[in-house]
């Protein structure tokens, strides 16, 4: 659960960083004294860079989430195995107790027959 919160914080921080970069770059380009054609080209380049960075961050987040899912799956498998082991041990103990009870009952029957 804690890792999920950390992943969300990292994703939120990455998105805020990208958004800040976009806003800052856009403002800088719009305020710069240059031709419209050059400004549009610069905006296009900037947008392409931001897209590339965003794609990289999304890939990183996807890998993190995949790792988290894999870890949760492994932990679940471990818990299931432990539960099976515990259930098997409990079952064996229950069978042993039933057999002891049956043996004690048979001894008691034998005593009653002798009487």
The biggest sheet amounts to: none
* Mean pLDDT value: 82
Task: Name the poorly predicted regions.
Answer: none
Q: How many structurally independent domains?
A: 1
* Strand percentage: under 5%
Structure class: mainly alpha
Rg, please? 34 Å
| Run of helices and strands | HH
Count of individual beta strands: 0
Number of helices: 2
Shape: rod-shaped
Assembly context of the chains:
single chain
Instruction: Report helical residue fraction.
Output: over 70%
State the distance separating the first and last CA atoms: 67 Å
Please, could you describe this protein's structure?
With 115 residues, the protein is mainly alpha-helical. It has one domain (2-114). Helix content is 95%, strand content 0%. It contains two helices and no strands. It is rod-shaped. The protein starts with a helix and ends with a helix. The relative contact order is 0.07. The mean pLDDT is 82. Keywords: Membrane, Transmembrane, Transmembrane helix. InterPro entries: Desiccation-related_membrane (IPR052928), YtxH (IPR024623). The chain crosses the membrane at residues 12-32.
């Amino acid at each position: 659960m804690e890792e999920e919160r950390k992943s969300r914080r990292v994703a939120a921080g990455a998105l805020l960083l990208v958004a800040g970069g976009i806003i800052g770059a856009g403002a800088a380009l719009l305020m710069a004294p240059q031709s419209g054609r050059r400004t549009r080209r610069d905006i296009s380049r900037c947008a392409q860079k931001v897209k590339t960075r965003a794609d990289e961050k999304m890939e990183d987040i996807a890998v993190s989430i995949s790792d988290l899912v894999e870890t949760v799956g492994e932990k679940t498998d471990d818990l299931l195995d432990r539960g099976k082991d515990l259930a098997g041990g409990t079952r064996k103990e229950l069978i042993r107790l039933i057999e002891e009870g049956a043996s004690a009952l048979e001894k008691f029957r034998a005593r009653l027959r002798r009487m």
